[in-house]
């Protein structure tokens, strides 16, 4: 099993150069989306080293928390993923742990889910494709598959991630052009290996190594422990310089004769590292390695780990790339009992709905004694929803009828068929959108029947203008900006920084600030809030979507579409029940008002109100996929539609 480790080290330079040239534009875009939130990075074996490196990058460049986890650790964690990003790292994309972890993550619906794999056409890629919303990035390494230990795949993953995080607008390459310039600047490969071999020689008659490190070299220390343990090269105890001082030094007091120390110090660590090393007993051999600072230092620490493992293998006559793996080890690797058939305390659909609504996992709610009232609220809402016959359904457009990838193309065939069947059954269809004429253009191309077009009521610009799809007069062109928005429009347009972050478009009763980059969302939102505070415009509101901020004149709301539909049915003894479906139900989402209707469903974000705005889609389904699931649960009658969400059946 495996291949000679020295052969793998020989092609590291070629792998590094390939990783510097590989196309990472899509990965950069994924990193920008992940950069807005805390991050969990998942990996096993060598990919766990890459996960720690990714955490360092995320904290360094975004200032946000990041945590490395193994797949089973994340699977077992009660952490609610709804407001977190998750990044999965894998070399081969086929081991049962990463496959099970992806399935679990999809079901738990993190805010963003991305994966990086250094092989093409893997089972993981197929699973990600089936989910429909996972940001999957696969790369075909020029080198052959790793041996027993992660080497070239580890280096490639780290370089790709470093490039994605440290993108340079001027195209400048943030990393040295050659691995030699990173790992041993000023020395050729043979001189570097000779010097490293000589420095480490006193360590090889010691069975235990204590690896001291700071933040920069943390991933390298993790990798040394991984390499030495997996290849049975010896015991490694990693510790940062100050945690070592809290009792871990006692190991050297009792086992100094069988222990050695490796110090991986950045320039910032160096004063502390030198003082620490000066206090270690003289009979304990110490190897001091200066790794440098920042990304270069963290990558160099990982590369040094690869070579140190090679030196240990040569000295101890163990090839780390092809150790003799026992049968029980192979069976352990392919064991998937941790992911299949796990016992559930609640049905999966109920647990997912409650977790989305409460913003906490059901395990956390159970521990706090809060699960029973949420179960009661879920049962009450679902029972009332399934007991109604709706004469009208009002949909949000972007994120509901259209996925993000369909935003400029319009609804897909399945959604178009869904709307057509509702209309043919005599159900009134409403669409409430923040957009204008582009929505009408897309829908005219999909609904050709004049009679059906007359039954589609569209509220353009968040309900500012309302007309049927057949109505050529709506939305009206060239209307003057509402007086209530003039001051805030002038204020925002004069902000050069804001104009650089967002494109500002003025309608009649709406200002739209479309993000030029998704990472600008928070800054744009804060600028809008500050502007509104300064203007003190009574009744003017601001709402958010995934791609823009809308500022609305007083009285402008998507619920005007619902009100117009109700008026069209006449005034009875009680309001006509209308089903509303959107994707941004949590304040300040642009569907918040629409989904405050008593019978509302979300295909993504939900409000905190336990009486309405639930997301009842199956775990892992979101946006148009969730909408298609809702439609499969619809029963069409003569002029009405009802839902039976438990069946998922046809109409």
UniProtKB/TrEMBL annotation:
It comes from Tautonia sociabilis. The keyword Phosphoprotein does not apply. Transmembrane segments: none annotated. InterPro entries: HAD-like_sf, HAD_sf, SIS_dom_sf. SUPFAM superfamilies: HAD-like, SIS domain. One of its GO terms (biological process) is carbohydrate derivative metabolic process. This is Sucrose-6-phosphate hydrolase. Keywords: Hydrolase. The keyword Glycoprotein does not apply. It comes from the Bacteria. GO terms for molecular function: carbohydrate derivative binding; hydrolase activity.
């Amino acid at each position: 099993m495996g291949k000679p480790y020295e052969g793998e080290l020989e092609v590291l330079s070629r792998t590094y150069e390939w990783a510097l040239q590989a196309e990472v534009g899509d990965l950069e875009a994924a990193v920008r989306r992940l950069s807005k939130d805390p991050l969990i990075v998942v990996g096993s074996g060598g990919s766990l080293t890459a996960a720690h490196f990714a955490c360092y990058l995320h904290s360094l460049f975004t200032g946000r928390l990041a945590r490395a986890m193994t797949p089973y650790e994340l699977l077992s964690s009660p952490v609610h993923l709804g407001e977190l990003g998750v990044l999965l790292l894998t070399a081969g994309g086929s081991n049962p742990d990463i496959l099970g972890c992806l399935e679990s993550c999809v079901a738990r619906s993190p805010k963003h889910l991305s994966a990086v794999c250094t092989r093409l056409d893997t089972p993981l890629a197929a699973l990600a494709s089936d989910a429909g919303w996972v940001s999957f990035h696969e790369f075909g390494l020029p080198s052959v598959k790793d041996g027993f230990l992660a080497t070239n795949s580890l280096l490639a993953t780290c370089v790709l991630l470093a490039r994605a995080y440290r993108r340079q607008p001027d195209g400048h390459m943030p990393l040295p052009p050659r691995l030699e310039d990173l790992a041993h600047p000023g020395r050729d490969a043979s001189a570097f290996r000779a010097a490293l071999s000589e420095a480490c020689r006193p360590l090889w008659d010691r069975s235990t190594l204590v690896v001291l490190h700071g933040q920069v070299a943390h991933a390298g220390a993790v990798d040394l422990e991984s390499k030495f343990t997996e290849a049975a090269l010896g015991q490694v105890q990693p510790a940062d310089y100050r945690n070592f001082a809290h009792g871990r030094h006692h190991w050297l007091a009792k086992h100094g004769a069988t222990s050695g120390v490796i110090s991986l110090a950045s320039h910032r660590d160096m004063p502390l590292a030198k003082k620490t090393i000066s206090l270690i007993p003289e009979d304990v051999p110490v190897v001091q390695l200066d790794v440098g600072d920042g990304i270069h230092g963290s990558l160099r620490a990982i590369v040094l780990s690869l070579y140190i493992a090679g030196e240990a293998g040569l000295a101890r006559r163990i090839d780390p790339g092809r150790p003799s793996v026992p049968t029980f080890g192979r069976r352990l690797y392919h064991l998937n009992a941790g992911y299949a058939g796990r016992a559930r305390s609640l049905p999966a659909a109920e647990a997912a709905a409650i977790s989305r609504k409460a913003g906490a996992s059901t395990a956390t709610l159970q521990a706090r004694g809060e699960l029973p009232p949420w179960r009661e609220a879920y049962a009450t809402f679902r029972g009332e929803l399934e007991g109604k016959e709706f004469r009208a359904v009002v949909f949000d457009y972007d994120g509901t009828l259209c996925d993000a990838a369909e935003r400029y193309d319009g609804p897909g065939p399945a959604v178009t068929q869904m709307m057509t069947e509702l209309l043919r059954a005599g159900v009134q269809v409403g669409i409430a959108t923040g957009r204008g004429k582009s929505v009408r253009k897309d829908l005219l191309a999909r609904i050709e029947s004049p009679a059906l077009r007359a039954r589609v009521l569209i509220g353009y610009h968040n309900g500012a203008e309302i007309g049927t799809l057949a109505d050529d007069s709506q939305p009206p062109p060239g209307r003057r900006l509402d007086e209530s928005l003039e001051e805030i429009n002038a204020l925002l347009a004069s902000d050069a920084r804001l104009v650089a972050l967002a494109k500002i478009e003025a309608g009649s009763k709406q200002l739209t600030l479309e993000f030029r980059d998704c990472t600008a969302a928070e800054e744009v939102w804060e600028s809008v809030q500050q502007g509104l505070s300064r203007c003190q415009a009574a009744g003017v509101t601001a709402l958010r979507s995934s791609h823009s901020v809308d500022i609305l004149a007083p009285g402008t709301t998507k619920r005007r579409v619902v009100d117009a539909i109700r008026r069209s049915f006449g005034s009875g003894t009680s309001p006509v029940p209308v089903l509303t479906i959107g994707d941004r139900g949590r304040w300040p989402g642009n569907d918040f008002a629409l989904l405050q209707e008593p019978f509302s469903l979300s295909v993504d974000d939900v409000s905190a109100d336990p009486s309405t705005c639930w997301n009842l889609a199956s775990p892992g389904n979101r946006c148009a996929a969730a909408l298609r699931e809702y439609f499969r649960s619809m029963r069409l009658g003569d002029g009405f539609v009802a839902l039976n969400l438990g069946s998922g059946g046809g109409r």
